[in-house]
Amino acid sequence: MTSLFTPFSTTRTAAPAHLLPCHDTEAADLFFSERPADLETAKTLCADCPLIQECRQGALDRGEPWGVWGGAIFDDGRIIAVKRGRGRPRKNAA
């Protein structure tokens, strides 16, 4: 069985897990949402995390298929700038 929480091995003093934004049960769904607005909210929660670099690098090393890791949106194991919403784009500007 795998854990939902990613363990980090770092030489820096790690913050207790309950202080990390991704370990907040109220916000956990934001990190794997289909809605682009939720993913942007998750990215802002990552901004002050003391483990942001380790998280992002770990996700790259593991090839995480989706979600917000280290303040970046992952899709198919790579970082993307912005997740597009579902559906077909408009033909004409609104």
Tell me the total number of β-strands. Answer: 3
User: Helix coverage percent of residues?
Assistant: 10-25%
Tell me about the largest β-sheet.
Answer: 3 strands, antiparallel
Principal-axes geometry comes out as globular
| Averaged pLDDT | 81
Q: Please count the helical segments.
A: 2
Query: Widest sheet: strand order?
Result: 1-2-3
The end-to-end span amounts to 48 Å
Supply Rg. Answer: 15 Å
The SSE string, one letter per element, is HHEEE
Secondary-structure content class: alpha+beta
Strand content: 5-15%
Low-confidence stretches: 1-5, 9-13
Model description:
Mean pLDDT is 81; it is low at 1-5 and 9-13. With 94 residues, this protein is α+β, with helices and mostly antiparallel strands. 23% of the residues lie in helices and 12% in strands. The chain has helices at residues 36-46, 52-62, and strands at residues 66-69, 72-75, 78-80.
Explain the layout of strands and helices.
Elements: H1 36-46, H2 52-62, E1 66-69, E2 72-75, E3 78-80
Short characterization:
The chain is of the alpha+beta class and 94 residues long. It is 23% helix and 12% strand.
List descriptors:
2 helices; alpha+beta; disordered N terminus; three-stranded antiparallel β-sheet; 12% strand; globular; 94 residues
